[in-house]
Each structure stands twice: as structure tokens, then as C-alpha cells.
Amino acid sequence: MKMRLFVTALILIAITYTTLNFTRIGLESPEYTVVQQDDDFEIREYQSFFVAATAMDNPDPMEGNSFMRLFGYISGENEDGEKIAMTTPVLRTEASGTQQMGFVVPQNVVDGGIPASTGEKVDIVNISGGRFAAYRFSGAWDEERFDAAKHQLLAWTATQGLQVLGSPMLANYDPPITPSFLKRNEVLVRIQ
């Protein structure tokens, strides 16, 4: 009986360890301070951070080559041949009418000098620090859910009398294998 409990405990520990390696836990994210919280809405003060970004070929992030270009960059397709740790969130932004996907560059890579991409169409973009409004929601990454969340965030900012600067961006914190109801997603928009 004791041996069966011991084996069961070891199996549960192994499953937990494996699961944690495929989630956002332990991954670096941009630093911020919460200034105000209202249920699923927050006002945050972010430090500047860098993103390896590429144009999205398709609004569905699982379609097209955007993710694989970024994955290539962090896997060594850069001028240093350096493998770069995965971070959270994966960002979807809009710049000059073009949808982009981006991976946050870890701080140790920023401190050591961010290598340029040797692959195609990956640029390093500085997201300047400042104040952002955020709305957190769960579920799969799809256009309909993103639009609904974006409208909720913009409606909330209006009721708070906040001036929005620029377009909202989508932040996804979990890998595709994470069950939808456990996924952490956010819509962020810079505010005055």
C-alpha cells in the first residue's frame, strides 16, 4: 500500500513538472506595476522592453509563417547564433496598418546586446515604457474573442475618462496545448 502511494506521488510530481514546463510559469515577462485594478481591468505602468517582431501572414496565429520566423530567431537564426529563452506574452500589434506578432526579448539578452536576425523579416522593436490599460480574459486566440475584448477595454477606458493612444494589442501568455478555459489573454492599450 505504501509503495503504491509512493509511486502515485512520483507520477503526480512528474506530471506536474512536465506540465509546468509547457506553461507560462517560470517564463520572463515585461515588468509592470499595477496602478489601479477594477475586476478584470487594470491600469499598469510598464518599463520599456524589446520585442522580436514580424508581419503576420494571416490573422490566425496558427496559420502562416509568423510564429515559425520568430521561433527561428530565438532558436539561433540571429547574428550571434544564440538560442534565446522563450518569454511571455506573445504579442499581436498593429503598426502602420500591418498586423505583427512579437516575442518579448529577455532582459539578459537586452543587457548583452540584442542580436539582429539572420532569418527573414524579423525586426527588433522597442516598446517604450508608460501607462497602459489592460483587460484580462480567457479562451482560445481568435479574431472574434479579440474584437469583443478590445471593445470591452475601450468602453471601460471611456467610462474612466482615459485618453487612448494608439491601437490595442493582444497578449497571449499560454501555449496552444493549454486548455482554453485556463489560458491567460489580455488586451492592452497605451493611455495618456
Write the layout of secondary structure elements.
Elements: H1 2-21, E1 32-38, E2 41-46, E3 49-55, H2 66-74, E4 90-95, E5 98-104, H3 107-112, E6 123-127, E7 130-137, H4 143-159, E8 164-172, E9 185-191
Antiparallel strand pairs: 1-2, 2-7, 3-5, 3-6, 4-5, 4-8, 7-9, 8-9
Mean pLDDT: 86
Largest sheet: 9 strands, antiparallel
What does the radius of gyration come to?
Answer: 18 Å
Strands side by side in the biggest sheet: 1-2-7-9-8-4-5-3-6
Give the tally of β-strands: 9
Poorly predicted runs:
14-22
H and E string: HEEEHEEHEEHEE
Structural class: alpha+beta
State the shape.
globular
SS strand fraction? 25-35%
How many helices? The count is: 4
First-to-last CA distance: 63 Å
Percent helix, as a range, is 25-40%
Give a verbal description of the structure:
- By secondary structure, this protein is α+β, with helices and mostly antiparallel strands.
- It has 4 helices and 9 strands.
- The protein has helices at residues 2-21, 66-74, 107-112, 143-159, and strands at residues 32-38, 41-46, 49-55, 90-95, 98-104, 123-127, 130-137, 164-172, 185-191.
- Strands 1-2-7-9-8-4-5-3-6 form a 9-stranded antiparallel β-sheet.
- A hairpin with a 2-residue loop joins strand 4 (90-95) and strand 5 (98-104).
- The longest helix is centred in the first third of the chain and has 20 residues, at 2-21.
- The chain starts with a helix and ends with a strand.
- Mean pLDDT is 86; it is low at 14-22.
